[in-house]
Amino acid sequence: MEQAQYSRLFSFLWNIANDVLVHAFEKGKYKDIIMPMLVLRRIDVLLEPTKDKVLERKEQLDKFGVTNQDQTLCMASGFPFYNTSKFTLKSLTNETDPQRLKLNFIDYINGYSNDVLEIIEKFHFRQQIDNLTETERLGTLISKFTDSNINLSIKPVVDDEGNEIHPGLDNHTMGTIFEELLRKFNEENNVTEAGEHFTPRDYVKLLADIAVVPIADQLEPKTTYAVYDGACGTGGILSIAQERINEIIPDSNIHLFGQELQPETFATCMADMMISGVLPQTGYSLKGTPRKYIAFGSTISEDGHAGETYDFCISNPPFGTPWKEDLRKKGLKETEKKKFTDSRFNLEYDDNGEFSFIPDIGDCQMLFLANNISRMKDTPLGTRIVEIHNGSSLFTGKAGGGESNLRRYIIENDLLEAIVAMPEKMFYNCGIGTYVWVVTNRKAPHRRGKVQLINATEMKTPLRKNLGEKNCELSEADRRHIIDLLINFEETPESKIFDNEEFGYWEVPVLRPKRDKEGNIVYKKAKKGQEPEIEYAKNRNECERIPLTYPGGIEAFYENEVAPYDSEARFGEPVLGYELSFTKYFYKPVELRSLEEIRADIRDVEARTAGMLNKILD
């Protein structure tokens, strides 16, 4: 869809709220009406051509007493959903009496198959029908959404000669409209939740390319590949990834799986997945357990795909978001995160018993990364994880803490292929810089034992008009540049390559002799015939960070860096940690101005000041 067509469609939808709901509803309630109607009309318009066929087939099935009618009615409708009510949204516009319209509208909604009814329930739309009826806005609202000047179908509208009048509205453009409407509705009401779950199309294309292009030569036709997004939002990442794999391997069979927490976003995702024909059915069976392709609930505490593995895990999880509600669902308090037992986040490693990835309660993004790590396949292709994070995932958490442990596990098991630093202002409601983690359990031989850092912060194209916070995009050339850097795996000003050990360090507490109130050194109680030993104490704020790459290790560091300056100090038990720093490797100091330039500026200021002083004295 071209930008001009998109803008007209968006303006039309935005104006429905201002034309129909104004003075009857609070602005904060607009989205509770417009969003479900948008999805409802998107489904309704697809069923219009086969409406009579579905009703005829329904009558036949009832006549012969057939109770399990879903499969037959879906075949009649041509989609994995149907509506057995005699009404369509367009036919409802013929009713002028508000009360009869309300009854007919409810009958229309109740005629949908169970999957669509679930979508409607997630929007809590039934609560709004009474309000729309009381204010006599229901009829006008339906008329607006069925206006021939807009097309919410995935199929284009054409004239009698086959010329396109209105283009079809694909899944990701629908997600863009959903996000922009949500953002504008929330701006009107000073709410800032928009942008938490949606990734712009240009960014999603890069994620799909990073996942697929480097291993394109390993993908095979007529093969099934599974793509998973544990924070799938409206499903944009899944649909773009599917498109990209199909472009490279046209005969491949792609299965999409995901999970979403927000009810309205989940409903929109489910609707578009069904509309696009991505989901042949909404349920499937794994080991005899019925499940859904797109699960509802929190991936952290209500794993909708427990025990499953995938070929590609591509996600933009929430960052800077507390996960205390997940603890509450498990019957735990905020202070009891150590009791949060889940094999995705706790495992035995390095012969030290339990090894936890549990992060700070204030940010859940590393849990999503650990969740994806647990989804890796043990196959020749393995699994590629491509996940967006903010900067804190690179370094937050102390050595031995959950965040550091996860980084350690990934790097020590040689799973980290690359991290790409992205430009700022890439998201609609988030101006911070982000980082793309590329993790795989099937590294190419020449990459083994290495990590690539790519600085793509300047690889962007300015937008002519800002979209919320978003002021730039990734053009096709920008994306190609990043992919080339990733595939070429060479040292350049934007690409740095390091051994895995570069990012590890020992955090060693510094011990000092314990002293009594008089300042005398305290000794341990000695056994008979032995010399008493000094008792050392640890200051929790005093420690040394020793790189794994330091020549000679901890002992050499003590001899070279500590003992010459503090002979009393001793080292305590070291703890292994891992962190990454883009600033360290890509920092470019600001070039100082020359003395000639500074002198010239001073002389210029002096000349202008002297002239002003002469005017004042004269």
Structure description:
The chain has 618 residues and is α/β, with parallel strands linked by helices. The chain has 3 domains: 3-169, no CATH class; 201-489, 3-Layer(aba) Sandwich (Rossmann fold); 504-586, no CATH class. It contains 21 helices and 21 strands. Strands 7-4-3-8-11-13-12-14-17 form a 9-stranded mixed beta sheet, sandwiched between helices. α2 runs parallel beside α13 and α11 packs across α12.
Give a brief description.
The chain is of the alpha/beta class and 618 residues long. Strand 15 (461-467) and strand 16 (470-473) form a beta hairpin.
Tags for this model:
single chain, alpha/beta, Rossmann fold, four-stranded antiparallel beta sheet, 21 helices, 39% helix
Number of domains: 3
Low-confidence blocks of residues? 191-195, 280-288
CATH superfamily of the largest domain: Vaccinia Virus protein VP39
Strand segment count: 21
Distance between the termini: 69 Å
Task: Tell me the β content.
Answer: 15-25%
Principal-axis shape: globular
CATH topology of the largest domain: Rossmann fold
Give the helix/strand class: alpha/beta
Oligomer: single chain
Strand neighbour order, sheet with most strands: 7-4-3-8-11-13-12-14-17
Number of H/I helices: 21
CATH class division of the largest domain: Alpha Beta
Output the radius of gyration: 31 Å
Average of the residue pLDDT scores: 88
Can you tell me the CATH architecture of the largest domain?
A: 3-Layer(aba) Sandwich
The description of the largest β-sheet is:
9 strands, mixed
Approximate helicity band: 25-40%
